[in-house]
Amino acid sequence: MQANKEFQLHDVVEMKKQHPCGTNAWKVIRLGADIRIKCEGCGHSVMIPRREFEKKMKKVLVRHEEQ
Question: Edge-to-edge strands of the sheet including 34-39?
Answer without folding.
Answer: 45-49, 34-39, 25-30, 12-15, 57-62
